[in-house]
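Dear H.,

Thanks for agreeing to be a second pair of eyes. The structure we're designing against is below in token form, covering all 179 positions.
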């Protein structure tokens, strides 16, 4: 299978910078924001965005991780998925603007699971969605508020996000099923 690189390290950095500015603008500043990354790479991206927001605004934005494994509706198809750690920042999410952060938005099912998980944790004032890659093919009426790159793809193609903190290298590729 041959993979085509669609984002390099500098492209990812630019996309996250743009997303961070858009989050600040949409929220009219950093007050009341909480970023929750969806493991694994969404947590890394949430931490990077929080760092950028802190650099731009001078205010530290709380970051956590929201594992959605046990809320997924496809566990029967992916039974080996092991739960990750959920960590909610001090102060919780009640009355806050929660920005869910994920690496790739595809069917929307992970985000639906995240919304279900949030209900068990608290009641945010609003929930927004930031994703590095939006590849379309939604099965649910879920749309991101902040997108790094729209990447039209065939449903049988695979988008691979590699981040230095997790994978030791940094890029995004797309590969076809028949490649």
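And this is the sequence the design step returned. I haven't edited it by hand at all.
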């Amino acid at each position: 299978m041959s993979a085509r690189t669609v984002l390099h390290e500098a492209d990812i950095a630019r996309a996250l910078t743009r997303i961070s500015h858009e989050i600040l603008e949409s929220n009219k500043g950093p007050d009341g924001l909480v970023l929750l990354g969806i493991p694994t790479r969404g947590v890394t991206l949430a931490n990077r965005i929080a760092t950028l927001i802190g650099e731009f605004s001078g205010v530290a934005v709380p970051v956590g991780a929201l594992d959605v494994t046990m809320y997924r509706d496809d566990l029967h198809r992916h039974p080996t998925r092991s739960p990750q750690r959920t960590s909610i920042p001090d102060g919780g999410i009640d009355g806050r603007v929660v920005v869910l952060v994920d690496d790739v938005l595809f069917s929307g099912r992970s985000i639906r699971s995240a919304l279900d998980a949030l209900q068990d944790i608290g009641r945010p004032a609003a929930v927004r969605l930031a994703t590095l890659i939006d590849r379309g093919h939604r099965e649910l009426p879920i749309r991101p508020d902040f997108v790094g790159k729209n990447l039209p793809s065939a449903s049988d193609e695979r988008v691979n996000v590699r981040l230095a903190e997790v994978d030791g290298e940094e890029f995004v590729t797309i590969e076809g099923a028949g490649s």
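Two observations from my side: Residues 3-70+93-175 form a domain with the Rossmann fold fold (CATH 3.40.50.2020). The longest strand covers residues 97-105.

Warmly,
E.
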